[in-house]
Amino acid sequence: MTCIEPHAPPDVEKSAIRKILLRLVPFVALMFFINFLDRTTISFAAPNGMMEDLGLQVAQFGLASGIFFVGYILLEVPSNLALHRYGARRWLARIMVSWGIVSLLFTWVSSVEGLYILRFLLGVTEAGFFPGAIFFLSAWVPARHRSRILASFYLAQPLTVVFGAPLASWFINQHGWFGLEGWRVMFLGVSVPAILVGVIAWFYLIDKPSGASWLNDAEKRWLNGELAREEAQKSHAANRSLRLVMCNGRVWMLCLIYFGFIYGLYALAFFLPNIIGGFQSQFNVTFGVMERGFITGAPYLAAALVMYFWSRDASRRGCKTWHIAIPALIGAVTVPVALYMETPFATMVVISLTASAIFAALPNFWTLPTQFLSGAPAAAAVALINTLGNVAGFSAGYVTGVLHDATQGYLIPMMVVGGFMLLSALLMLGLSRIPHAGAADDVAINRAGAR
């Protein structure tokens, strides 16, 4: 029987959360860093020899980028079920080792068809990592501390490109290692850490606070008590809740809002290195591989800083409509405007605004479902929204590539990106103007989840 300590001294609560921030969040963030790097490494390989060596058209590169999400979507639900059955520690470690092995195989890919197969398998093996990591961290802290924990975790995503782009470029410059082309050396170099960290995760991560030797007894009692009390309030009627959530208009508006942000995120992630590679013909300037890596990472450094301070402001004031709508509007305008700039510097400044807008909105967006849903309905809504986001990831890669080949440029593809982000902004404003329109439905869903 769990010993509940509902009114622990403030210093116990503070020290417990601080230890989790220091012991768990950085390691899980490192896992996320490697995860996002491995799924987007193809964008660094493309302009540095891979497209030429494999005979890829931009549309084929777009399909290869996006097909990752097909495997991811198909296996996401089974992977999440397995995570609950076997435990987050074991399953997250298994996922890392599996995707590291598949990522390693890219080193020897020799055809377009092989590239498609490996990207699909990479999605299959990575399936469930992101929601699994969110579930793992959420299982360690009470709800009131989760926004801080998850915002710290989310910083890994923009920082992946800040540090990952120069790292990938360094590997590409090691052309000739083991008799491999530079882009193949890069795949080798970024894959091995996934396998190693996955093995370490098996021994380092702990599923529950009760097993943490670095927490004292008072901290364990407080955490276990808070988490047990929240667990007792959760719904056991998931199937009924899911049916009701599927019929809720607000949830579908959130799906479309998120679709726009994720479409922009992956269009930028997959094609920014190609856009930078085109600076030579567009502006008559030449950048080396390492220079292109640092240029690619610069917008994401700005994005990380903006995300931190924007999320901090949202936590202090409470997340408002404008915390999400303003970044969406800025992203919608800056995406196509960047292509009209007359110097590489001006182009990258505008792209930095785009990246900052996307990352400023994402952590705050995830506070929305729990503003009107709770328990199993909220979990079902988050799963549905995340699935639509993965569809956006596939669409961004494939549609951008097809439109580029059809128009011989990035203007139309980036205008589509801007259009989706504008839709996100308008839907967010619309959602804020009908705060009580779906109240009866929300109450019905939450009551179903409580039975």
From TrEMBL:
The chain crosses the membrane at residues 20-37, 57-75, 91-110, 116-141, 153-173, 185-206, 251-272, 292-310, 322-339, 345-366, 378-398, 410-431. It is found in: Membrane. The keyword Transport applies. It comes from the Bacteria. It is a multi-pass membrane protein. InterPro entries: MFS (IPR011701), MFS_dom (IPR020846), MFS_trans_sf (IPR036259). Pfam families: MFS_1. Residues 24-436 form the Major facilitator superfamily (MFS) profile domain. This is MFS transporter.
